[in-house]
Design goal:
- The protein is mainly α.
- The protein has a single domain, classed as Arc Repressor Mutant, subunit A.
- Helices cover 57% and strands 7% of the residues.
- The chain is elongated.
- It starts with a helix and ends with a helix.
- It binds FE2/S2 (inorganic) cluster.
- The site of FE2/S2 (inorganic) cluster has 12 residues, from loops.
- FE2/S2 (inorganic) cluster binds next to loops.
Length: 72
């Protein structure tokens, strides 16, 4: 593995630990795993992870989750 590849993997791990849903403390990696496992809508992600079910009504995490769904 070259240094660029190692750096990409390191950044991916750091990204996966970032909290996307602040209300419920759900990390990006958990949401990505739900998407990789077949979630295709924000409701699917809600059911699988509890993200976007907090008191803010997904105002903070909803746009990020929608972007992740779009980009997957
Ligand atoms: S940040 Fe996800 S529901 Fe509030």
């Amino acid at each position: 593995m070259d240094q660029d590849e190692e750096e990409r993997r390191r950044r991916a791990v750091i990204e996966s630990y970032k909290v996307v849903c602040i209300c419920n403390k759900i990390r990006r990696g958990v949401i990505q795993k739900a998407i990789d496992g077949g979630a295709t809508t924000i409701d699917d992600v809600r059911r699988r992870t509890r993200a976007a079910t907090g008191p803010c009504g997904s105002k903070r995490c909803g746009p990020v989750i929608r972007r992740m769904l779009r980009d997957s």
